[in-house]
Amino acid sequence: MDDPLRERLLDQARALINHYWAATLALRQQAGLEQVHGYRIAARRLHALLALWRPLIYHPRLERRLLNSVRRLSPLRDEQVYASHFLHHKAANKGDEKEGKGAVAEPVPPKVNMLAVALDGWLDAVQQVPAGFDPLPWYRLQLGLRLSLLLNQSDDEQSAKSKKLKNDKLLRQWHKARVEIKQLRYGCELLVAMGAGDPDWLTLLGRWQEQLGQLQDGRQWYKRLRREKSTAKQQRLLRALRKKGGWQLQRLSCQRGELVGLSLLMLKVD
Are 46 and 16 in contact (CB under 8 A)? Predict the structure, then answer.
């Protein structure tokens, strides 16, 4: 244990595992907006850590269980975000209503796995890796390749000229890109923390994650509002969401070159 890099990598692994356990316990106690969001972030950071050591150490069942826990929380997370923007606002504007009417009931804390035994076994395997092994350059290439493949697979025909927020192929493509870019960002966090990545990469991916998240929120809200009872105010909101969505799609298409440049930088061998 006289390898400084190895010590730092092990410290990083232990910290992320402990963070995941703390977030899991918090979610088991209360399934509020903050706890659900905190758990999903901790789980994605942990998944990025598992990817850092893959394929040298690969526990597919552990990764599947972790990702399944995140997916199970997605509907609850969407419901909470929608409620925080619309339902709570409606209730606050109706002071003559009874207290609590219009508010969202506190959800039952979902069952999420601590994965304690599996993570202990995984960490034991990491500790057996010979001194001097550095997974960071390989992981950087892996992230760069994933980003490059993502961009190549995306439909670059700007023929998807529809600005509607319904049944739009381009919107679905950007949604898939959002999921991948989110995980790339957490992977980049590991690189930057170890001094193996440029903090500007993290800033760029964070901005893209935020923009794509706003686009996805608008898409979900549009679908949800269309299913509710129509009012004049609601129709104005739907039109505003359509207009904003079209503008967001145009902006993302214009900025796509940023991701191309980032993938080239990450694939560059020093």
Answer: yes
Distance between CA 112 and CA 182 in Å, rounded?
21
In Å, how far from its chain's centre is CA 25? 20
End position of a domain, from candidates 113, 134, 155: 134
pTM for this prediction: 0.83
Residues 125 and 151 reside in one and the same domain: no
Where do runs of H (alpha helix) occur along the chain? 4-29, 33-52, 60-82, 88-92, 116-127, 136-153, 169-193, 199-227, 232-267
pLDDT tens string 10-22: 999 999 999 999 9
Q: Which of 134, 150, 182 is the last residue of a domain?
A: 134
Question: How far is CA 233 from its chain centroid?
Answer: 32
What is the extent of the structural domain holding 42?
A: 1-134
With left for phi above 0 and alpha for psi between -120 and 50, is residue 132 left, alpha or beta?
left
